[in-house]
Design brief:
The protein is mainly alpha-helical and 140 residues long. Helix content is 55%, strand content 6%. It binds zinc ion (ZN) (2 copies).
Length: 140
Amino acid sequence: MLKMKCERCEIDSASLFCLRCKRAICGKCYEDSLGLCSDCVNFKKATEWDRRQLVRILTETVRISTNNLEKQKCHACEILRYHLLFTLKVLKNLGIELEHEDLTGLRAPVHQLRDAVIPLIIEAISQKKLAADPTSWPRI
Ligand SMILES: [Zn+2]
Ligand SMILES: [Zn+2]
């Protein structure tokens, strides 16, 4: 049988394959429960941290927007509307990413946020009966 060196440490002989980077990996450089090499485990952890932060920021955005929509002076705010539509776009992209891999169970909170943002947008848009497309809004 042909022997292959681990493509990560380049010391021990490889006996496994990383599911993410597809390199041949030795037992020492492999995380069995995830099917990933040590490098990819670190990448996965960093990505998860980033996404958790993003969900935290989006949750805060939805909370603040909900409060602001209750105030009379924010009813006609174009920035708030635009911000909500942008939030929805970020949530949509995040949802697509999480369909492939549910990073630390973020799928459910992202779906909940999307469900919360849509009525806010409808409320914000209906205030001035504006179209959903921000480019068609009248300039102030
Ligand atoms: Zn190795
Ligand atoms: Zn890998």
